[in-house]
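A quick aside before the break. I want you to see a complete sequence-to-structure record at least once, exactly as it would be stored in a machine-readable document. Don't worry about memorizing anything.
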Amino acid sequence: MLLFFQLRIPFFCLFLFIGSVTACAADRSAALLKDLKAGNYGFFLKADKAAYRSIKMMGHGSAYYVGLHLKRAGHEQAARFYFDLGEKLYESPLNRLCREELYETGSPADRLQSIEKRLQELSKASDTSVQNEKELSEKDRLTRLKNLLLLQMGAYDSITQSPETLYLTGPLTATLAEAFPQFGKDMPPFLHKLAEIRIAVFSKHYTEAWASVPDTFRMENAFADFTFPSLLSDIGKAGVYGTENAAEAAAFFEDFAIRIQSGVNKKLSGTDMRRCLFYASFYEARCRVKIGGAEQQERAIKLFLQAAELADTDSNLDSALWYYLDTIKLRDIPRYLKALTDTAPRWKKPEWYADLIQSLRAQLTAAKDWKHLKTLYDVLTKTNLPEQQAAVAYTLACTDSLPPDQTVRLLQEASGESHDSLYYRILAAYRLGGAQLLQDVFQFRSTLPSGAQTQSVRRPQTQAGEAQSQSGGQAQTSEFSVQEARAYIGGLLHFSLYDMVYPRIVAVYPAIPAEEALQIARVLADDGLYADSIRVIRFSLRNQEDAATKEQLELLYPRPWHEIVSKYAAEYRLPEYLLYALIRSESFFQHRVVSGAGAVGLTQLMPATAADIAKRLKVADYSLTDPEINIRFGAYYLAEMIRRSDNRIMPACFAYNAGISRVRGWQKKAQGLSADLFLESLEYAETRDYGRKILSAAAIYGALYYSEKPEDIVLLFFKELL
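That is the input. The structure line, written in C-alpha cells, reads:
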C-alpha cells in the first residue's frame, strides 16, 4: 500500500505540471494573437526557429497567417521567413498559398529565387511524366513573372522571352514600359514602333499613340507580325480615342481591311485573317459613329454586323452586337426593337445588354410610348434578363393602357419570385392587394430550416434591389475542397485578417452554407466591417432555398451608430429607418469610403456640399470621415431636400443623389406621369436605381426594427398611390 502511494504522487505532480504547461502555452498563444492584431510585431520580427516554436502554437497554418500580417506592415523579409517555412512544412493548400506569397514578397532577387526553384521542380516533373494543362499554365505564368523580375533588375541578358513576345502578345505592365528604352532597343523597326504604340495606349497617351500608327504601317515589312488580339485592340483604341479627325481614322481601318483581304501578308492563316478583319471592321465602325450623321451611322451599323460575323470569342461577339444596338438606337425605335429581337438569341452574356434595355425603357416611359414598351416586354420574354422584364412588366401595368386581366398578370409577374428586385415586388404587391400581400412579402422566419444550408436555389425577396445571379447555388468549383476552404477561412478569422475574408470566400468557398456564413458575418460585424458582413450574407443566400431569416436580415440591414442616427433623425424630423436606408445605400456603412467622384463617408457628401452645410450649422472644424459629423450633415441635407421637394420623400431622394435643379428639370418634362413611373423615366440610371434601393431598404428597416407597416412606407415615398 505504501508503494502504491509512493508511485501515485509523482504521477499526480506530472499531471499538474502538464496542465500548467498547457495553460501557459494557451496564455502565450492568446498574448501573441493579441499583439498580432494590435500591430505589435516585435516578437514576430525575430523570424527565427525559436520564434516559430512559439508561433506554431497559435493555430494551424500560423506561419502563413503571421506572414500575411508582416507583409502588410511592410516587413517583407520577415514575412518571407514564415512563408518559406510554410511552404516546406505545410500540406496543400497552405503550402501552395505560401509558395504564391514567396513570388510576390521581398526583393526582386528573393522573389526570382523562389520562382526559379518552382520552375526547376516543374521541369523535373516533365522529365518523368507528361505535364497536365494546369502545370503547363503554371509554368507559362511563372516564366512571364520571372522575365518581368529580370526586367526590373536590369538583367536583360537572362531573359528567355524575346522583346517582341513580351511587348506585343500579352498585357503590358509598368515594369515593361519602364524597361522598354533599354530592353526593346534592338527590336526590328516596325515591331519597335508597334511596341511604342502599345506603351502609349497603356499610359493613356492616345493622341501620341495614334500619331505613330499611319507612319508605322507605311514602313517596310509592315503587316508582318501584328495578329495578336491585344496589339490589334490597342491600335483600335488609339484610333478611336487619339484622333482629331475620325474620318481619317476610319479610312485607315478601311484600308487596313482591304490590304488584309488582298493577301498583303501571305503568312496569315485563315484564323489570323478573320481576327484582323474583325478589329478593322469594329474600329472603323466606332470611328464612323464618332464622325456622326445618318450616313456614317448606317455604315457603322453594317460594319458592326460584319464584325459580329467575324468574332472568334464570345466577348468579341457581345462587343460587336452591343455597339451595333447602341448605334441603331440612334436611327429609330421600331428598328431598334427589331434589332433587339433579332440579336437576343445570339447574346452570350445577356447582362452586358442590361444598360441598353434600361436606357430604352426610360426613354419609352418618358415619351409615354406604351406601344413600343409592350414590344420591349415581348423581346425580354425571350432573354435571360429577369430584373429588366419585371421592371417593364410593372411599368406597363401602371400605364392604364391594357385590359384589366393583362394588368393583373403583369403585376403578378412583377411581384413574383422570378427576379431579384425587391422594389418591384413591393410596389406590385401593393398595387395588387395592398397590405395583405405586402405582409406576405415581409414574413420573417426566426431560424434556418433544417437542410437550408445545402439547398441550391435562393429566394430573392430579401434583396433590396441589388443585382444577384439567377443561376441559383454554386457547387464547390475552386481548387479548394469544402474542408480546405472552411479551414482557410477559419484561419483568416482566427488571425484577425478580417478584410480578406469576403474576397477569399468568393474565390475559394462558393458553396458556403448559410449557417457558416452567419457565424462569419457576426464576427465581421463585431469588428465594424459591416460592408463585408453584408456581402457574406448576401453571397451565401444564393445557396439557400428559403427566404432569409430574421438574423440574416439583421446582418444584411444592420444598425451601427444607433445613438447617433437616432439623435439626428429626431433632430431633423426624419424617420429613423429612412436615414438608415440612406446610409446603407450610400456607403454600406463604410465611414472612410471615398467615391470616384469625391463623395466622402457614410452619407457620401461632396466636400463643397459639406462646406455649405457646415457654414449653415456653424461648424468650424469637421471631418467627413467622423461618423457623427457625417451622419449629422447627411441628415440635415436630406431634410433640406425634403423641404425643398414639397415634403415628398422620393423626389427628395432623387435630389440628394442628382441635385435638386436637375430633378426639377426632369419633373417638367415628365408631366402626366404617376410618381412611380416618373422614377422609371429618369435619364440617369444611377438615380433610378438609387430611388429603388432607398425605398426597398427603408421597407426592410421599417418592418424589421420599427414595427412599420410596409404599405405605410410605400405611401411615405409615393403619396400619390393613396
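Two observations worth writing down. The two ends are 94 Å apart (CA to CA). DSSP finds 37 helices and no strands in the chain. We'll return to this after the break.
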